[in-house]
Design goal:
The chain has 227 residues and is mostly helical. Helix 2 runs parallel beside helix 9, helix 5 packs antiparallel against helix 6 and helix 5 crosses helix 9. Strands 1-2 form a two-stranded antiparallel ribbon. It folds into two domains: 11-176, Nucleotidyltransferases  domain 2 (Four Helix Bundle (Hemerythrin (Met), subunit A), Up-down Bundle); 187-220, no CATH class. The protein starts with 10 loop residues before the first helix and ends in a 7-residue tail after the last strand. Helix content is 48%, strand content 7%.
């Protein structure tokens, strides 16, 4: 069986921010799939912003290239001004939660001390409801089943993670709507020669045998056949 090449999953295949939950059945799959959703959304955003060239695709898809990592994608999206600081922070925290699950040598859930602490760092304050700021905790408690109420800490942390993934994905998709793919501008190096020599004070030298300077400057390259 041929090995499938790594690729950035485009927005059209990622669906909306909440659809990632359709593919999970455990705390581990929730963390891994949620993290992968944001990692690919960040990659898709960069794919739109970078030039349409193999160099860009290699940076994003090469297994050892700098933009193939979650953290680098989040940082570059922020440094290019594609996402605001809060979305950047939440994306980085989601990545840390994903890594905590992925690198644990034993089964853990969202009640794990390290995971619960990271979930506490997720910021949902920009979310608003009909009557004001969205109270994610009250909403989560309303949705809890009797079984989930027995594991309140885990349930609240899990739901906050899910809401953060959904909101972060939506913010990245919204950012993509304003992105225009960059194209490199070609420049031509031009030079002027054969003029008159110039003295240190800026005056022209009358001696025709004095060496004249060559002046270099750049200008946008003309398209073939252009005027």
């Amino acid at each position: 069986m041929a090995k499938q090449k790594r690729r950035v999953v485009p927005f059209s295949e990622l669906g909306d921010g909440g659809q990632f939950m359709e593919h999970v059945n455990s705390a581990l799959s929730c963390a891994l799939v949620g993290g992968a959703c944001i990692e690919n959304a960040l990659g898709s955003l960069l794919e739109l912003a970078l030039i349409d060239d193999d160099a860009s695709r290699n940076l994003l898809n090469g297994p050892k290239e700098i933009l193939s990592t979650y953290a680098a994608r989040a940082d570059l999206c922020f440094c290019l001004g594609l996402i605001p600081s809060l979305v950047h922070r939440n994306a980085k925290t989601i990545g840390k939660i994903r890594n905590t699950f992925a690198h644990s040598h034993e089964a853990i859930d969202f009640s794990d001390g390290g995971v619960d602490r990271l979930c506490g760092q997720l910021d949902l304050t920009p979310m608003v409801g009909v009557k004001g700021p969205f109270d994610w905790e009250a909403y989560s408690r309303e949705q809890m089943s009797p079984e989930e109420n027995e594991h309140e800490r885990e349930s609240l942390a899990t739901n906050k993670f899910i809401l953060a993934v959904t909101a972060t994905h939506m913010a990245i998709v919204a950012a993509a709507a304003d992105v225009r793919t960059r194209a490199p501008v070609e420049y031509q190096i031009a030079c002027l020669s054969g003029g008159r020599a110039i003295a240190e004070d800026g005056s022209l030298i009358d001696d025709p045998d004095a060496p004249a300077p060559i002046v270099f400057f750049t200008r946008p390259a003309r398209e073939p056949g252009g005027d």
